[in-house]
Amino acid sequence: MLSVQVPRVDAEEFSRCDEPEQMAGHANNPSPIQKTDGAIRDSIYHAIWKDNVLRAVEHDEIDVHVKNGTVYLSGHIVSTTSQSRITNAIGTVPDILRMKNNLVLDDKLTGEVATALAALEHTYDCKFFTGTSHGVVSINGVVPDEAVKLLAEQVAAGNPKVRGVINNAQVVGTDLSPQELPFLQPAIGETIYFSDSISTVVKQVVISPDNRRVIGMLVQGQFAVPVTENRQGKMLEKTIVVPMALIRYLTKTSGFLTSASTETTQYQDFNPSYFTKPPSDWTPPYPYCPQDVLFHIPASDVENQIMIDPDLAQLKIAAQPTSPKSPAPQTDILANWEDDGGMIVQTAEAVSLATPALKEPSVNDSLGG
User: Fold this and answer.
1) Angle between the 32-50 and 80-90 helix axes, to the nearest 10 degrees?
2) pLDDT by residue (tens digit) across 237-260?
3) How far apart are the C-alpha atoms of 291 and 277, rounded to whole Å?
């Protein structure tokens, strides 16, 4: 059995983004070593599940990968106490050669962010209070103006271990804005359903670099072609951009939207000219990999680029809504949906007032999902 000592991670020898299938031990034709690795992985999850505290707080926040008998841990946990319990649980599993721990602790992350914000406190004569929940940092306090509030958000987001920032800082002389969208991270490959039962699959997410939060998702699926363009019943596969404000329920495996697929004013066709890959030295928030993430380019920047390169004007056309909104009978697919941990993230009435365009989450968003 494994000693409770946990070595430091050597990032050069393992990447969960480069070898997800091998790490899970579920290749199409697994070798004996891969089968053993898969069995070890399953045993580790079972051992963590058996601990009542870990099952309630940490189980769903930990990723376990096994390669050639070496266990690699990633994710966000609450504290050193949780880390000790995890190490002890894994120590009961046989056949582990060694373990590499890449878990991020909330208490340590809070300290790092608070230290980074201290410079702003000194410069702008304000005080921040920070907290962290499984990698999601919340900022509270009173600031002199909106510019300092945004700067605090960007400073916290500058830590590559932060999953997202919820900025509840209040500007002097103003009321605290109402809470809007919760913190959500749709999984790559997750199935997303429109309210009229049309299903799509998440291909990539759009993240705001200011707060490391998901503001939209690229989903791919079969959509009906308007009757005026083709014969009735024709389906066309395409990729669209869905704002996070349209999410009604979201779990680790599936999500449901408040609108129907025919409500084309609520989303846009994907246009690559309005998006860009993050810089190579930017670390995406866990659990995403670099290839999963896009940044949104403001329309004004695209317009300026079109003036330089007129050929981009052709790409701009695809960014417009696909067709006018048309009525269609809707089926409440949630009626037969088994509860697998989904939660209502926003009422349909609230969503109907939101703009369909991509927008960054409010700095007063509440932690959820």
Assistant:
1) 130
2) 999 999 999 999 999 899 999 999
3) 8
What is the C-alpha to C-alpha distance for residues 66 and 218, in angstroms, rounded to an integer?
Answer: 30
Q: DSSP H helical segments within the chain, as ranges?
A: 20-24, 32-50, 52-57, 80-90, 106-124, 146-157, 299-308, 312-316, 348-352
pLDDT higher than 50, residue 351: no
Give the residue from 353, 250, 268 showing the smallest Cα distance to 318.
Answer: 268
- Is pTM beyond 0.85? Reply is no
pLDDT for 122 equals 94
**Encoded tokens for 235:** 């389906």
Say how far apart CA 166 and CA 182 lie, in whole Å.
9
pLDDT digits (tens, 9 = 90+) for 106-148: 999 999 999 999 999 999 999 999 999 999 999 999 999 999 9
Residue range 278-295, pLDDT digits in tens: 999 999 999 999 999 999
Residue 95 · residue 40 · CB < 8 Å: yes
Rounded Cα distance between 131 and 129, Å, is 7
Tokens of 16: 């969960």
Under 8 Å between Cβ of 320 and 265: no
